[in-house]
C-alpha cells in the first residue's frame, strides 16, 4: 500500500508484527496500544477506528491510535505534527488525546485552531511504574470483584469517573455502555475492591494488560472513608495480585495536582518514568 504525504498511512493486519516491535520499544508506556493491537489484529472494525503508521524508507518509525482515544506511539514532535496534518483532513472524531506529553503537545498545536476549545487539558501527568514488591503491607481484604458486587461496585465506578473526568459516564445515554464495560472488567478478573459490611471502601481496575505490563485505572475511595490508609494498602494488594497473575510491571498515570493520590503511589513504591498529557473534549 502506498503511503500518503509525510509517509503516513493506515496500518492493517499485515503490519501487526512491525507495529508490536515499535510499541515494545517502550512496552510499559505503550501498554494500551500494544493491548489494542493484539486484541484487534489492527482490524478497523475491531479497533473502532484506525491505527496510523509513519514510515521512513519502508520502516515503521512511529504510529498513532485513532479511536475514541487518540494516542501517539513512539512519536517525536515531527511525527506528531505529521499525524496532526492527517487528522485535520478528516476532522475531529476522538474524545480524548492522551499519551507522552511532548507528542500530545505537538499534535495539539497542529489541530487546535480547527478542533475547537477542549473541555479540559491536563498537561502534567506523571506516568508511574512499579516492578517490585510494594513498600507497604497489602490489605488482605482486597479481592477480585464478582458479578454479585455490581450493585455496590457500579455506583462507585460512576462516582469515581465523574470526580476524575468532570462529567458522568452516564451522560447522554451512556449508562448501558458503561455498565457493560464495568461488567466486562469484572468478568476478566480485572476489577478489585474491598468491602466492609457489604459497603465498598476501596476499588481499582486494570484497564489493559500485556505480557509486559498492566495499567491501572479507576482507583477510588469513597469520600466518607478517606484518610484511613485504605488506598495505600489497597494499591499494594492490587500490585501484588496483578504482578502475580498478569504482568511483571504495574503502571498508571496521575494528575500532577492530585497530591493525595501521588502520595499514595509514592508510599506503595511507584516511580515516575515519563510525563503524559491528556486533552479532553
Automatic annotation (TrEMBL):
<keyword id="KW-0012">Acyltransferase</keyword>
<dbReference type="InterPro" id="IPR025289">
    <property type="entry name" value="DUF4081"/>
</dbReference>
<dbReference type="InterPro" id="IPR016794">
    <property type="entry name" value="UCP21603_acetyltransf"/>
</dbReference>
<dbReference type="InterPro" id="IPR050832">
    <property type="entry name" value="Bact_Acetyltransf"/>
</dbReference>
<dbReference type="Pfam" id="PF13312">
    <property type="entry name" value="DUF4081"/>
</dbReference>
<feature type="domain" description="N-acetyltransferase">
    <location>
        <begin position="140"/>
        <end position="281"/>
    </location>
</feature>
<protein>
    <submittedName>
        <fullName>GNAT family N-acetyltransferase</fullName>
    </submittedName>
</protein>
<keyword id="KW-0808">Transferase</keyword>
<dbReference type="Pfam" id="PF00583">
    <property type="entry name" value="Acetyltransf_1"/>
</dbReference>
<dbReference type="InterPro" id="IPR000182">
    <property type="entry name" value="GNAT_dom"/>
</dbReference>
<dbReference type="InterPro" id="IPR016181">
    <property type="entry name" value="Acyl_CoA_acyltransferase"/>
</dbReference>
Amino acid at each position: 500500500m502506498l503511503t500518503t504525504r509525510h509517509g503516513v498511512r493506515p496500518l492493517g493486519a499485515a503490519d501487526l508484527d512491525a507495529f508490536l516491535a515499535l510499541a515494545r520499544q517502550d512496552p510499559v508506556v505503550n501498554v494500551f496500544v500494544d493491548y489494542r493491537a493484539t486484541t484487534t489484529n489492527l482490524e478497523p472494525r475491531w479497533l473502532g477506528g484506525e491505527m496510523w503508521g509513519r514510515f521512513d524508507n519502508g520502516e515503521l518509525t512511529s504510529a498513532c491510535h485513532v479511536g475514541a482515544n487518540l494516542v501517539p506511539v513512539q512519536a517525536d514532535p515531527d511525527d506528531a505534527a505529521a499525524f496532526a496534518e492527517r487528522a485535520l483532513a478528516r476532522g475531529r472524531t476522538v474524545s480524548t488525546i492522551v499519551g507522552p506529553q511532548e507528542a500530545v503537545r505537538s499534535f495539539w498545536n497542529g489541530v487546535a485552531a480547527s478542533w475547537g476549545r477542549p473541555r479540559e487539558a491536563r498537561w502534567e501527568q506523571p506516568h508511574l511504574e512499579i516492578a517490585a514488591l510494594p513498600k507497604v503491607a497489602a490489605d488482605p481484604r482486597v479481592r477480585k470483584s464478582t458479578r454479585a458486587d455490581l450493585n455496590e461496585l457500579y455506583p462507585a465506578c460512576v462516582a469515581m469517573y465523574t470526580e476524575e473526568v468532570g462529567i458522568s459516564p452516564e451522560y447522554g445515554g451512556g449508562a448501558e455502555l458503561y455498565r457493560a464495560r464495568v461488567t466486562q472488567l469484572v468478568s476478566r478478573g480485572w476489577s478489585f475492591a474491598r468491602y466492609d459490611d457489604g459497603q465498598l471502601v476501596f476499588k481499582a481496575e486494570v484497564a489493559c494488560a500485556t505480557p509486559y505490563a498492566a495499567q491501572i485505572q479507576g482507583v477510588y475511595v469513597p469520600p466518607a472513608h478517606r484518610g484511613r490508609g485504605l488506598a495505600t494498602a489497597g494499591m499494594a494488594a492490587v500490585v501484588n495480585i496483578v504482578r502475580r497473575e498478569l504482568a511483571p510491571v504495574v503502571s498508571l498515570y496521575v494528575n500532577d495536582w492530585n497530591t493525595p493520590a501521588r502520595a499514595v503511589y509514592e508510599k506503595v513504591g511507584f516511580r515516575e518514568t515519563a510525563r503524559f498529557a491528556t486533552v479532553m473534549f
